[in-house]
C-alpha cells in the first residue's frame, strides 16, 4: 500500500482522451487501451440514426402515446366473432411460422386446438391435417390479439375484449387456463381438452354475462398499476392482480342467471389461478403499444414476441415489419425432475409486458419472483436499473416502490440497445420441448441480437431516404 501511495503511478486508461491527457500533464505513466462497449449492428447505421433529426420528436410522440393509453374490459366474446376467424384458422404467438418449422409446444397446442374444435378425432389425424396445410396459421399480433406461450387461439375460444378510452382501439386475448398441463404449454391430453370445453361452455358465457352487467367497466390499467405496489411484476407473478380481478368481478358473477354449481366452479377456477390476470395484462400492453404504431422516425420497439423457433420484434418507425432471429432458451428453475434438456426455446406473446415496461423490467417491484424464475433479489434490482438505460421514458402510472416509486422503464429504444450492447430482460415460463409435455419450469431470457441488428439497419435505411 505504501508503494502505491508514494510511488509513481502507472495508469491504464480506456475511453476518451481527456482523462489520459490530464494524467500525463501531471507526469503519470499512462497506457491507453482502445476499448469500446460491444454495441450491435453497423456503426454507420447507428450514426445515421443518432443524427436523424426526426428521432427525438418521433420517440417523444410514440412513448407519450404508450403512457397515455388506457385499458377497460368491455366484453367477453368468442374469437370467431371479434377476430373474424374463419373456420379452420388458428392464431399463434410470435412472428409468422408454418407447421414444418413449428416447435414441439406450438405443435402440441395446434394439435390440441384441432381436437378441441372437432376438426380431427385423433392426434394423428390432426397432424396430417396441419402438415397438409388444411389449417391456416397466422400470428395473433396480425389480429390485434396476443396469446401467452404457444398463444394458440381457435374460433370457439372465448376472448377478453379490451378498449382504450383514449384512441378507441381494441385488443383481445384468450382466457387463461392455469398452470401445468395446459394447451398454451403444448399439452393436449383429455384433461386439457375437458378444461377447454368447460371454459367454452361455462366460463366464457358466465364471464360475458358478468362483464356486460357491470355498471362501470373494469379499469385493467389501474389494476396493473396497483399490482406493482403489491409485489407483482405483471408477467410471471400475478397473484395480487388476479385476486383484485376476482374481487371486482365476483359481485357481477354471483348475480349471473346460471346454475349455482356453475357459478361456484367459475369463482373457484379464478381464485385458484394465480395467472388469471396475465391474459388481461397482455392486451392492456397491446393497446398501449398499438397506439404508438406508424410513427416515422421513431426507434421505439412496439412488439417483442416468440413462436418457440424464432423471436421477432417490430418498431414504431417500421410498422408491421418483423425482424427475427433464433429464439434463445430460458435459464431458470425447473419443475420436478425436468432439466435444461427438457426446455424448449423461448415462446409466447407475453413479452408484450416487457415491451410495455413491466414484467422483467419491473422485477425490482417483485423480489419474490426470483423464487420462481431464478436469480437473487439483488439481481432483480439490478435488472430494473439496467433497463432504464435502454428505454426512452419512465411511466408514472407504473411505479416501482423500492426505487422510491420511480416510474417503470418504458419504451425500448433500438438505438440505445445498439449503443450499449445490452438486451432487454424477459422473465417467462418454460414449455417442454416435446409436444404434449406442458410446463417444465420458468426462467429468464433475452432476445437474440439479430432482431435489433436488423431493426437498426431497416430504421437507418428509412432515415436515409426520409
From TrEMBL:
What protein does this entry describe? DUF1116 domain-containing protein
Organism expressing this protein natively: Geodermatophilus obscurus (strain ATCC 25078 / DSM 43160 / JCM 3152 / CCUG 61914 / KCC A-0152 / KCTC 9177 / NBRC 13315 / NRRL B-3577 / G-20)
Amino acid at each position: 500500500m505504501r508503494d502505491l501511495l508514494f510511488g509513481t503511478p502507472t495508469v491504464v486508461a480506456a475511453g476518451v482522451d481527456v482523462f489520459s491527457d490530464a494524467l500525463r500533464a501531471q507526469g503519470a505513466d499512462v497506457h491507453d487501451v482502445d476499448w469500446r462497449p460491444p454495441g450491435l449492428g453497423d456503426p454507420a447505421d447507428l450514426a445515421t440514426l443518432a443524427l436523424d433529426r426526426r428521432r427525438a420528436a418521433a420517440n417523444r410522440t410514440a412513448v407519450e402515446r404508450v403512457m397515455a393509453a388506457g385499458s377497460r374490459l368491455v366484453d367477453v366474446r368468442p374469437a370467431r366473432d371479434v377476430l373474424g376467424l374463419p373456420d379452420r384458422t388458428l392464431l399463434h404467438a410470435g412472428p409468422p411460422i408454418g407447421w414444418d418449422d413449428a416447435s414441439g409446444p406450438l405443435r402440441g397446442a395446434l394439435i390440441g386446438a384441432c381436437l378441441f374444435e372437432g376438426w380431427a378425432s385423433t392426434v394423428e389425424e390432426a397432424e396430417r391435417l396441419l402438415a397438409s396445410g388444411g389449417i391456416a396459421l397466422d400470428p395473433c399480433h396480425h389480429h390485434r390479439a396476443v396469446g401467452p406461450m404457444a398463444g394458440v387461439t381457435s374460433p370457439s375460444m372465448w376472448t377478453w375484449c379490451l378498449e382504450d378510452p383514449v384512441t378507441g382501439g381494441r385488443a383481445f386475448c384468450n382466457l387463461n387456463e392455469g398452470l401445468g398441463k395446459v394447451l398454451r404449454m403444448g399439452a393436449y391430453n383429455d384433461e386439457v381438452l375437458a378444461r377447454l370445453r368447460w371454459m367454452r361452455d361455462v366460463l366464457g358465457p358466465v364471464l360475458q354475462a358478468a362483464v356486460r352487467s357491470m355498471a362501470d367497466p373494469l379499469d385493467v390499467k389501474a389494476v396493473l398499476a396497483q399490482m406493482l405496489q403489491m409485489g407483482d411484476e405483471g408477467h410471471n407473478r400475478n397473484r395480487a392482480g388476479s385476486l383484485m380481478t376476482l374481487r371486482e368481478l365476483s359481485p357481477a358473477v354471483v348475480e349471473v342467471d346460471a346454475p349455482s354449481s356453475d357459478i361456484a366452479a367459475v369463482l373457484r377456477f379464478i381464485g385458484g389461478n394465480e395467472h388469471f390476470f396475465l391474459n388481461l395484462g397482455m392486451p392492456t400492453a397491446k393497446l398501449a403499444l398499438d397506439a404508438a404504431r406508424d410513427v416515422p422516425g421513431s426507434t421505439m420497439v412496439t412488439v417483442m414476441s416468440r413462436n418457440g423457433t424464432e423471436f421477432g420484434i417490430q418498431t414504431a418507425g417500421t410498422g408491421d415489419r418483423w425482424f427475427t432471429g433464433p429464439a434463445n432458451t430460458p435459464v431458470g428453475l425447473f419443475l420436478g425432475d425436468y432439466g435444461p434438456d427438457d426446455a424448449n426455446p423461448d415462446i409466447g406473446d407475453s413479452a408484450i409486458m416487457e415491451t410495455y415496461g413491466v414484467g422483467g423490467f419491473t422485477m425490482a417491484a417483485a423480489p419474490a419472483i426470483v423464487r420462481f424464475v431464478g436469480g437473487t433479489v439483488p439481481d432483480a434490482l439490478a435488472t430494473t436499473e439496467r433497463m432504464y438505460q435502454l428505454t426512452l421514458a419512465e411511466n408514472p402510472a407504473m411505479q416501482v416502490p423500492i426505487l422510491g416509486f420511480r416510474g417503470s422503464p418504458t419504451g425500448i429504444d433500438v438505438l440505445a440497445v445498439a449503443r450499449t450492447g445490452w438486451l432487454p430482460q424477459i422473465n417467462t415460463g418454460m414449455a417442454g420441448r416435446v409436444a404434449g409435455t406442458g410446463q417444465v419450469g420458468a426462467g429468464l431470457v433475452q432476445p437474440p441480437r439479430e432482431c435489433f441488428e436488423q431493426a437498426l439497419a431497416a430504421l437507418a435505411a428509412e432515415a436515409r431516404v426520409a
